[in-house]
Amino acid sequence: MPHPPKIAADALEDAARTVMAKAGIEIPDDYLGGIREMADTERGDLSAFVLQAMLENWEAAKADQRPMCADTGVPRWYVKYGNEARVEGGPVEVERRLRRATARATHDVPLRPNRVHPLSRRDNDNNVGINAPEIEYSFEPDADWVDITTVHKGGLFGTDYRMLFPADGIDGIKRFYLDTLVAFGKRGLACQPAIVGIGLGGSKDTCMVLGKQAACLRTVGDRNPEPEIAALELELKELGNSIGMGAMGFVGSSMVVDCHIEVGYTHTGGMPMSVHCFCLSSRRATARLHPDGRVEYRTDPQWFTPYMRRDTVEWQTAAESFEKSA
Q1: In this protein, which residues make up the domain named Fe-S hydro-lyase tartrate dehydratase alpha-type catalytic (predicted)?
Q2: I need a surface site. Which of 48, 58, 80, 325 has the fewest CB within 10 A?
């Protein structure tokens, strides 16, 4: 069977530069809709003022084509490879082009050059350096396209981790969740209202990765396919908005735009948990590159596919699972 044509490296770099600008400037419709709903129900004076100011600032930023927030975060990449996809120059060229696009966008959009060496504080003035920007990968069967998603997330605060144990149960999850939100609100460690991502299980590093992906790569209103997890997402969203804190930690009821949970099988003796808050500039954008040269842009990364959440040794499509159970 002949291979599909290769995706051009130049096209990938140009698309990456475009999504960097989109993420920095254009607020996704799902998040914008969630903020508008909160603005309609918020009764706290200062929180209501902040929400309205956010909406007005977003409109001004879009009209002026410049980032709303002076701190444009630390750019990172999520690449989803179709199993049949091929890119000109291979994976090494993909990473080269993503780093080039990051440097270009830092100067052209512009984005604040936030990345520095941790000890010398050397700044390359382009958000590129050792292990920067981060590039994470996932794969998709029966596809010949490549998705590139950029996320500009704050790199200092808005994240916490705790090793829970099986006996802590759902109550322990709620307790750590509330402890984290209250601490973030009181100390100004997150820019509420935010999409909150929770990682449950896995090893410590997997737990942290899943929580960040849950916050940054799922849209407002999206629910986990496991009913028990989906119900907990909704319960935690309501719980987070009932603690008396609103926008930017002021008195109110608008702290959590949505809550997303992702899980990973973990050690039998533990239940690690991470909590991540995206910021009020929910900055993400995706481009899908096809081998025929087409490029499609969207704001839903579509990262968590059934294949990524598979729970078997062998991958089975939904149709195959149905046929075997019939």
Answers
A1: 14-287
A2: 325
